[in-house]
Amino acid sequence: MRKQKKKIVDTSQKIQEVLLLLVSDNDDLRSRLEKEAAERTKETAELRDRLDKETQDLKDRLEKEIAERKADRDKLQAAINDNASKGDDAMNDLRDLIIQERDERTDQAGKMDTFFKDENEARKKNLDDVNEWIGVENAQRQKEAEELRERMEREKRELQEFIDKDNKRMADKIDAENNERQKQEEEMKKRLKDAQEASENGTIQLYKKMQGENLAREAEIAELRDRLNKEKAELGERLEKEKNEMKERLEKENQELKDKLANEKQFLQGNIDGNHNHANKRISDLAEKLAGMLKNGNTAMKDLTDRMIKENELLRSLMSQPLSIYFDAYRTEDYELGGEEYLTFTGTRSNLGGGMDAKSGVFTAPMAGAYMFTIHICIHDMKKGLLSLRCNGNELASFYDQNHDSNHKNSMVGQSVVADLSQGDKVQVYMYTHTGMMDKRSNWFTHFIGMFLRPKDFMLGLENGLEVTNGH
Fold this sequence. Notes:
Order of helices and strands: HHHHEEEEEEEEEEEEE
Distance between the termini: 117 Å
Shape: elongated
Radius of gyration: 42 Å
Structural class: alpha+beta
Number of strands: 13
Largest sheet: 6 strands, antiparallel
């Protein structure tokens, strides 16, 4: 009897251990789900911040360009009003000269229109790239959610199999104990039959007591089995509910991000088209106003004509916009791939004119003229530096650094060059074999800088000996 009680107590303790193990596994699974949900939330916030930052940069550039165009327009209007107030008449030669100037400005306005259209197409392409990137990111998140669901299903199946095996083992054990008890009862009946005359009343009472204890233990085992099944069902329902809630939250955040990006894209497109139409209309109004002023004039003095010619030459030189294109590209990660490829960059601190593509490392000249390029790098430990500046695949300048006690040292090295480029020429930095560079997120050693010095044919054809050539 004591042995049977001990077995029942051991069985109860094992069942309690299984329940504690299930509760522990459930807590671990919940903590992992909460951790993964926090990571997804953090990634979504970072993506949203990056999109907001890029959108704000695009707005700032657009506002800056509008302000520059407005300043040029105001200067031109002021010059026209000043010249009109000082003179009452204009000669036929002056009229022809100003008509020619108007044609040149019309051509330049056409070029500016083409430039803005190209810039608009580039921005549209960037928005398409962002949409594509978001699509890939969304597909990756859906794939991760599917993998999480499969893992939860697998763990659920493993838990179910473990519970089924444990239930089967417990049932087999109980059956074995019941068989053992039946066998003992048969033996007890036989012994009672043999000693019935001597101790009939005591044996019957002991038998009834043992039978009552067996029924109580069976009821307790059945109750434990029901409670285990109930907790298993509740755990499955909780896991399924948390999985659905996480999936719905991820889908909602992705949809909100898509809607926000679409609204920003539509807003920026409206601003670009509106500013473009406004600029074209303003140029047409100025041209019509200038034609009306010329039509109402009669004659002009000789000194006024000379002054007008000099001011027009000055306006022409200002309209060519020297120093209006520049960029500064940088890196934030080490390069140890061995070279024999073109250098790419993490981003740009400034990129006026939009000629520099940091991801490909290609600078495309928006205008023909003279440009100055400068690059500085930090050589990686146990590496060397052998690089060159190339225009359309042809070398402009090279620089290297190596053999510091078997290259076991870091050092800064750089190169500068001035080159005459045609519109559309491409300038890149090429790395030769065994080149290695060091950059960190907090220390940006690599910088590739370009600056537009002056346009092609700058100040050529001026009178009074002011003509400037390129030295050839």
